[in-house]
Write a structure and sequence with these properties.
The chain is of the alpha/beta class and 297 residues long. The protein has a domain of 120 residues: Ribonuclease H-like superfamily/Ribonuclease H (Nucleotidyltransferase, domain 5). The chain is 36% helix and 14% strand. The strands form 2 sheets. It has a 5-stranded mixed sheet with strand order 6-5-4-7-8, sandwiched between helices. Helix 4 crosses helix 5. The chain is elongated. The structure holds zinc ion (ZN). Zinc ion binds next to loops.
């Protein structure tokens, strides 16, 4: 099995048209022999040409494979949606709406909406698994993104992104209102399991960490020019993640409104968490959807 993401040529061999895309959604969500929610009999399902739907062989009930997916309320061809997702899984620096507009030949407004829904979908699929635990180390750090001043304590328009990164494992990010301990620590409690070794810099807000949930707290003293302490304490991995996120936002998007920053961070979080298995991203994003009752026809 290859660990490389699909090439563009392979993508178009796999999804040559809209019909193939719809069939794919039907297969991963229902499949032939799927029990009809209305008459409760195992059915063959027939494609209804007039809409994106399949019909029960017994009672004529309709199944809509796009309901509950990012592709539900759209007239944009499914193949373009799938291709846009392919682009999101094969980039290192993110995909701008401008880029989607060019590549897909859709309007900027459509491209922008697609990008937003795809990011939300990536965030959804990535989910909220807890990180850390006994014998694991989690680096915790916060950073300012955007705004007018690059340095200092948060110029106008800057947003704070808070992150927790398990060494060798997953990262979790949250956009937060400020850097107070009352703001940051609840996120740590929510995402990081008890008995984790947690590394931070010297920010005072992290002072209370050692008394929480049995965490073992170590701090590195950046203000004294220390980046790896003699006990091996560092937040270099999460700082690398920040660097990559910021470079990409500057390079790909120029700037991002604070309101949407969380979603961009989640996009990068999704890819980072699959950095050792990039080939699984497209199949996962095209087959993982919220279960939804198909009660209406
Ligand atoms: Zn039926």
């Amino acid at each position: 099995m290859t660990t490389k993401p699909l090439t563009t040529a392979a993508f178009f061999r796999m999804f040559p048209d809209d019909e193939t895309c719809l069939k794919h959604l039907f297969d991963v969500r229902f499949g032939d022999g799927f029990e009809c929610p209305k008459c409760e009999r195992a059915s063959k399902w027939f494609r209804i040409k007039a809409e994106r739907a399949y019909s029960c062989q017994w009672c004529g009930h309709h199944l809509h494979p796009t309901v509950g997916t990012p592709f539900e309320k759209t007239r944009t061809p499914l193949q373009l949606w799938f291709y846009a997702i392919h682009l999101f899984t094969t980039t290192r620096h993110g995909v701008s709406a401008k880029e989607l507009e060019r590549q897909l030949g859709v309007t900027y407004k459509t491209a922008w909406r697609m990008a937003k829904l795809i990011r939300e979908h990536m965030a959804d699929v990535d989910g909220d698994r807890p990180i850390g635990g006994p014998f694991k180390t989690v680096e915790i750090d916060e950073t300012f993104v955007g705004g007018h001043r690059e340095n200092g304590q948060g110029g106008k328009g800057k947003a704070v992104v808070f992150g927790m990164l398990e060494r060798g494992g997953d990262v979790v990010t949250e956009v937060v209102a400020d850097r107070k301990s009352g703001t940051l620590l609840p996120h740590v409690i929510k995402h990081v399991q008890p008995h984790t070794e947690v590394h931070t810099d010297e920010l005072r807000s992290y002072g209370g960490l050692g008394t929480l949930k049995g965490y073992w707290h170590k701090q590195v003293n950046h203000s004294e020019g220390e980046y790896v302490s003699d006990t091996g304490t560092t937040v270099n991995a999460i700082e690398n993640f920040w660097r990559h996120l910021k470079c990409s936002i500057t390079g790909t998007h120029v700037s991002v409104r604070p309101k949407y920053l969380g979603l961009y961070a989640k996009e990068f979080e999704y890819r980072f968490n699959r950095r050792n298995r990039p080939e699984t991203m497209l199949p996962e994003l095209l087959s993982t959807f919220r279960p939804l009752p198909q009660s209406c026809d």
